[in-house]
Amino acid sequence: MSLDQRSSAILRALTKSNSCISVEELMKFAHVSKRTIYYDVKKINSWLQETGLYPLQYVRGAGYFLDEETKRSVEKEEIIRSYDYSPRERVAWTAIIIFIREKEIYLHDLMTYLKVSRNTMLDDVKKLKKILSSSQLELRSSKMTGYIIRGEEEQKRKSLSCFLQEIIVKEGREGFEEKLAHYAPSFLEELTTMFALFIESEQELSLKFTDDVLYMLSVNTLLFLKRMKQGKWIKIDSVEKNVLQETKEFQSAKTIAEKLSKKWGILFQEDEVYYLTTHLLGSKVNNYTTHNLEEKDFSFFRTIVKNMVTDFQKYACVMFRNEKEVEHNLLIHLRPAFYRVKYGLPVDNPLSHTIQSTYKDVYNITKKVVHHVEKAAHNKMSEDEIAYIAIHFGGWMRKEGTVPAKRKKALIVCASGVGTSRMLETQLYSLFSTVDFQTTVSLREYETMPLHVDFVVSTVSIPNRGRPVFLVNPILTEGEKASLLKKVSTIIEDGHVLSHSVEGIMDLIREHAKIQDEKLLYQKLKEHLYQPTLHGKGERSKPVLSDLLIKENINLKESLSSWQEAIRHASIPLLENGDIQEEYIKAMIKNIEELGPYIVITTGVAIPHARPEQGVNKLSMSLMTLSQPVSFSDKDRHQVRLVIVLAAIDNETHLKALSQLTTLLSERANVEKIINTDSKEEVTDLITKYSK
């Protein structure tokens, strides 16, 4: 039998997915009813079994998935080759083809390459024109020239990079390479050469690029070369040249340019060397050597990082135990991020929307601290860049205090850099109570290192080296967690116990029935019997502001002579309720004496707090206003009339209420209203208004 177009598309989607796809997601993907999806699943399973492959597997509450062996087999079948581009992919491929064209490209060429009708192609061209216009670029066509794109060369290359990133993220490297090779047959051979050049530059720069960045550097530079062959050159400002000349990356760019000139017969213009330097500077790395970190420009970035971490702790009302380690890991990410922001280099963060929704509170606090980068770079930071930094902070907030049990060993392979890997690590630590996860490595490190682990968790497709490999997304949904738990269950200790139960059931079935496929039945019984439960801390519910700042915890118009007295007095309701211990008040005062008035978050407002283990029994808050200000330092900006004590039980549970409080305090009229009122009801009404 053969599959129809819709069933083929569903099968392709399952082949590309690293996790379960729910019935609802498949309905949305195919634009059909639940009944039709079940009908398509039945057809797909019949086709798979006819082909000698395992059928789709189902996880209750999560959805359908294909095991890795079936995925590999399906990809070899012709069905997977007849790929249907999505409208967005067609637009991206149209742009790429026009950008790197070596001859005139006309409408019929695009129709042939993308396998669409004339009307569809005209509609795609119209969409592309609109996208390009937002980058000050213009798509034109004539009988003599075919399709051409007008505008600044730098903008053209930025757009080309964005389209490339979009395609590679959606289709994967193999899919991208296979399709581009149809249009540019020498591409794969040239890409291998380019890849080797950038690996050599790693040694010269004493650093390791992330796998994703190394690949994108190679692809971008190779396609930029094709534009240079057409006489399309970049222009760099003379002031920027003076700055770029002082970097090690400039020397490495000169070496790469010389090698490229010899290999491709192109005489690099000086400005192209500077342009390549900006891309090297903006490339994410996994690590720097100690020598790198001692260089002059790193002191500049250390100052920015320290200010960001200090502000984040202030706004989040948390205190990192390993503050220096937090700063060190953020420093590795921030240097290339700074140059991307400064030079407007595009970065694609496929997790951006997930981070903004799943970790909304952390993302919003991160937005408040990136001004340190923006001010130094003289440019705004994109949402994708902010999301990457939010991953760093969110990962550390979850990691602190988490200790995995050392029973089974596993390795994490991540191609996206330290921030993404940190977020994945912390999720896996809390998910598997019986697994000790080793250090996170890149794809290239995985391919050469000795493996002393029981299984591997990876965000990218990797070679099988005799250990089970589980593909995941860097941020796991509850359905994906359930799916991963189900798959891993057979190799952790729970799986050992389970196997005996399954064998017993298999023996009973053999006695009373004929089994057509023992291997498949065994697998299905394991999946059915193993109902995953999430290990570790799990997700605490996050109370809103009105749950914490209750009327009984509010005192107004108090007269006190010092900030120490203000903190003690504001804490009394929490102490009397048993929410905190006396030592917590002492810890808050000691922190300010040692660290300064970091708790003064805006004019007239202080939020004193200490670490949860320093005497917090229950998540709580109290509020007190003063008839006259108390001073937290000799500076006018540290005069305070509103004190809000926060007693947090961890780094996360208070963030929703804190975010609502921050929004309330951001309106100066609200602060004045609270300070000047004699009515507790007026304060609680205002708090309720912002607790939604």
TrEMBL record:
InterPro entries: BglG_antiterminators, HTH_11, Mga_HTH, PRD, PRD_sf, PTrfase/Anion_transptr, PTS_EIIA_type-2_dom, PTS_EIIB-like_sf. The keyword Transferase applies. Pfam families: HTH_11, Mga, PRD, PTS_EIIA_2. Keywords: Activator, Repeat, Transcription, Transcription regulation, Transferase. One of its GO terms (molecular function) is protein-N(PI)-phosphohistidine-sugar phosphotransferase activity. Residues 408-496 form the PTS EIIB type-2 domain. CDD domains: PTS_IIA_fru, PTS_IIB_bgl_like. Gene3D superfamilies: 3.40.50.2300, Mannitol-specific EII, Chain A, PRD domain, Winged helix-like DNA-binding domain superfamily/Winged helix DNA-binding domain. GO terms for biological process: phosphoenolpyruvate-dependent sugar phosphotransferase system; regulation of DNA-templated transcription. Residues 183-290, 296-403 form the PRD domain. Residues 547-690 form the PTS EIIA type-2 domain. This is PTS system EIIA component.
